[in-house]
Amino acid sequence: MLSQALNSGDPRLIRADGAAVEWVVSPGRVDHPEAVAEMEARAAAIAEGRAPERVWLLEHPPLYTAGVSARDEDLLDARFPVHRTGRGGQFTYHGPGQRVAYVMLDLTARGRDVRGFVRGLEAWLIGALDRFGVEADVRDGRVGVWVQRKGPGWAREDKIAAIGVKVRKWVSFHGVSLNVEPDLLHFGGIVPCGISEHGVTSLVDLGVPATMDEADAALMASFQDVFGPVRTVEARDAGIGARLA
Asked: Which of 40, 85, 193, 213 is the most core-located residue (most Cβ within 10 A)?
């Protein structure tokens, strides 16, 4: 059964004017500082009415990011660069095989409800995973999207997608990450999102041999269910391909 978050889609999250969101996928790996600078500039332009909304899909080289609630003791092994960031949440890992989606939406046109927006992000991820036959859901008191795993004599819950956003002038930035096929051992350098009693997983770890392109297609289809239409824009045409390698 799908999450109640997915079944109770908020119609306010779809723009009344029908404007499409730019959907940009960057090839290669994008350095985190450059990505944040590009994202913040775009969010400011959206707030000022100078640019349309955008969802930007990319991969980062291996790194850890610390949200505003991060605790120093949750950084167990700084084996990769650590970036302090203004998004919500605690420590998380980004790296190859993980799809990061930076979400720059004008919430003034989408209900002006931050909690409703986060529920929309959850529904988006749950809907994308459902397209692979993966039953995922949210948990009270925990951020992100989770799967229940069972075997002979054991059961546990693992996180498959993370959410960490910031809103400024009613425009969102930062976003979500979906584990497609990252090296799960890299999460061992942190206590992910401050939760030590549960693990992390990925589509491939669950036995779903999804490619990044297939994950992107599922994310696009589910996004349109929750947030409305998109239009694809090549990274170079979006003005970011030449600067971010």
From this structure: 193
Q: How far apart are alpha carbons 112 and 130 in whole angstroms? A: 28
Q: Are 122 and 145 contacting, i.e. CB atoms less than 8 angstroms apart?
A: yes
Question: Which tens digits make up the pLDDT trace of 11-53?
Answer: 999 999 999 999 999 999 999 999 999 999 999 999 999 999 9
Q: Give the H or E element holding residue 213.
A: helix 212-227
Q: What is the C-alpha to C-alpha distance for residues 174 and 166, in angstroms, rounded to an integer?
A: 6
193 has catalytic annotation: yes
Exactly one of 193, 219, 233, 235 is catalytic; which is it?
A: 193
pLDDT in tens, 137-156: 999 888 899 999 988 888 88
What are the CA-CA distances from residue 196 to residues 85, 90, 189, 207, 219 (Å)? 21, 12, 12, 24, 28
**Structure tokens, 192:** 């992910």
| CB atoms near residue 230 (< 10 Å) | 18
CA distances from 131 to 59, 142, 162, 212, 241 (A): 21, 23, 18, 14, 29
Q: Which residues of 177-199 are buried (b: 16+ CB within 10 A; e: fewer)?
A: bbbbbbebebbebbbbbbbeebe
CA distance from start to end of the chain: 41
Q: What is the model's pTM?
A: 0.92
- Residue of 59, 54, 32 lying closest to 43 (CA atoms): 54
How many angstroms separate the CA atoms of 240 and 100, rounded?
A: 16
